[in-house]
Design brief:
CATH architecture: 2-Layer Sandwich
Strand order of the largest sheet: 1-2-4-3
Distance between the termini: 46 Å
Strand content: 15-25%
Radius of gyration: 15 Å
Order of helices and strands: HHHHHEEHEE
Largest sheet: 4 strands, antiparallel
Shape: globular
CATH class: Alpha Beta
Length: 156
């Protein structure tokens, strides 16, 4: 397992989002904290990252997928692209969690997956399920999620 302090030394490899003159300490610090949580909580850190992303995404009250894409780019979460509509597949380039990291033989983008779920649940008013099918942490060149929805049931 990668040590949290070592993450601070790895180039984030985000040429579009970071550019040459933007301080990327926030991304490196996020990553260091993310790996520290995993060291302390094991797999529970993945749940925490996912639920944090979901709660954050839902709190934004975005109205469209385009707003989600723009927010993610502006706040350097990643470059989100809808690559297929049926089934819905969402690609994240320059992912905040793992862009530039070595192959770790496991998916890493629990925060981004939760963020997408939270945003989409607010946009479509349905429960959303997500599965990460590609990840830089698995040795892929990008991160990608397959998304499915099901109706919200309100019990009285």
């Amino acid at each position: 397992m990668i040590e949290p302090i070592d993450v601070l030394k790895i180039n984030a490899n985000r040429p579009t989002l970071d550019g040459n003159n933007i301080d990327i300490t926030d991304v490196r610090l996020f990553r260091a904290l993310r790996f520290a949580w995993e060291k302390c909580m094991g797999r529970g850190a993945n749940v925490m990252a996912y639920m944090s992303g979901r709660t954050f995404g839902k709190s934004l009250n975005l109205k469209t997928i385009d707003e989600m894409i723009e927010f993610a780019k502006n706040y350097k979460i990643g470059i989100i692209t809808v690559v297929n509509k049926n089934p819905l597949q969402i690609r994240v380039d320059e992912c905040m969690t793992c862009s530039g990291l070595p192959n770790m033989e496991k998916p890493l983008c629990y925060f981004e997956g939760g963020f997408i779920v939270g945003c989409l649940e607010g946009i479509v008013n349905k429960k959303v399920k997500i599965n990460e099918t590609h990840c830089i942490g698995l040795g892929d060149d990008f991160c990608q999620f397959e998304v499915s929805t099901y109706p919200l049931y309100i019990f009285k």
